[in-house]
Amino acid sequence: MTEFSSSLLRLLSERGYIHQVTDAGALDALAGKQVVPGYAGFDATASSLHVGHLVQIMLLRRLQQAGHKPIVVMGGGTTKVGDPSGKDESRKMLTNEAIEENIAAIRPVFMRMLDFGDGPTDAVMVNNDEWLSTLGYIELLRDVGAHFTINRMLTFDSVKLRLDREQPLTFLEFNYMILQAYDFRTLAQTYGCRLQMGGSDQWGNIVNGIELGRRMDAAELFGVTTPLLTTASGAKMGKTAAGAVWLNEDLLPHYDFWQYWRNCDDADVGRFLRLFTDVSLEEIAKLEALEGAAINDAKIRLANEVTAMVRGPEAAQAAEATARETFAGGGLGADLPTLDLPAGGLSVMAALTELGFTKSNGEAKRKVGEGAVKLDDAAITDPGATITLDAGATAKLSLGKKKHAILKG
To answer: What is the distance between the alpha carbons of residues 262 and 48, in angstroms, rounded to a whole number?
Structure first.
């Protein structure tokens, strides 16, 4: 591990955030002598961010913890274009109203995880639509486009991979890297921003911004990227069989969010505690050293810490209580996902699929055949069974040991 003198890079390095750094020595020296404003950008393509975005939010949190200034850039402008990085097809175009609604829905997560205000290390949130939508096309071509060559742009993974797969890349998306570079330059001029942070797939875009700032303003800018995050099983971080692990409650109940962390692989506990919680490194070392059934205590600590930070302490307490009641007491925890049954009942296969426990009726049928599906802890053996309940009655539907829901009549 590289030895750094600044508290910022030491913190990022010790907790496992650093994949690449541009001119690490110069950034280390700068962070050791002054407040460094740094930013991470988030496009508003949905009404919630997901766990895949969480490491970038944590980077901003670590930046503030080390005495520097986080800048949250909401991509109101770049969302209209679509980042081709890691994508196989063009992004669905959203209306201005939909983008604004998404930004409003995303904002509360940042308000919980960062301290906002007017102080030198207080976080600020800006919308790149403010400057991108007023940028004239001729002005962009003349003042910014002159610093980019098609030859170099074609070498970036975000472009190259799409072309190698013979999948269409629109001229609109091709311009995304120019707009992101212009973001960095604008933030440097307006907020004194010196650092851009992002995932490893953003390296090319970040380097473009650094180069643009140097060419247009002789500015010394820096970039930090995080490793591609996968679970111990090799799965992409934040994805489950039921879909994305959303940060907002309206898209994913508190209990399901808590369970995602509680169910992590034993091998991931220490890494996730370092990346996604404020638990001290000394305590993490003790927790990840636990063996056998005791490792579950570390997983519960992880689930509680992340849920409390992202959703609030009450959400974490309620989710843990629900888990305790469901697993230990055999009861119906109040925070379990719920499904209202129609008057005529619902087939067990439809119930499993509607809850997101299975992807299809075919998978649900297989699970019933394996004896993995239970209603109030009694196995369901007939895949064609219909579940009916009296008005006001409830029952617990379970798939395996970890997926539970409340059915309501």
So the answer is: 21
pLDDT at 344: 73
**Look-up: residue for tokens 């230990």?**
328
Where do the domains of the chain lie, and which CATH numbers do they carry? 7-226 (3.40.50.620), 253-328 (1.10.240.10), 338-408 (3.10.290.10)
Query: Which are the catalytic amino acids?
Result: 45, 50, 53, 87, 91, 180, 201, 236, 239-240
Q: Is 252 helix (H, G, I), strand (E, B) or coil?
A: coil
Q: What angle do CA 121, 77, 103 make, to 5 degrees?
A: 65
pLDDT tens column, 281-335: 999 999 999 999 899 999 999 999 999 999 999 999 999 998 887 765 455 555 6
Q: Is 393 exposed, middle or buried (0-12, 13-18, 19+ CB in 10 A)?
A: exposed
Residues making up the binding site for L-tyrosine = 39, 176, 180
Residue matched to tokens 């906002």: 116
Smallest Cα–Cα separation from 72: which of 18, 108, 19? 108
pLDDT of residue 379: 78
Annotated binding site for ATP: 239
Q: What's the pTM?
A: 0.79
Q: Which residues of the chain fall short of a pLDDT of 50?
A: 86-88, 329
d(CA 23, CA 28): 9
> Contact 394/388 with Cβ under 8 angstroms?
no
Assigned token pair, 177? 């890297």
Helix axes 295-311, 269-276, angle to 10 degrees: 20
> Annotated binding site, which residues?
39, 176, 180, 239
d(CA 360, CA 352): 8
Q: Could you read off the pLDDT of 54-93 as tens digits, one per residue? A: 999 999 999 999 999 999 999 998 898 765 554 445 557 7
**Residue-level length of the chain:** 409
Neighbours of 271 (CB within 10 A): 18
C-alpha to C-alpha distances, 341 to 241, 256, 334, 344, nearest whole angstrom: 23, 20, 17, 8
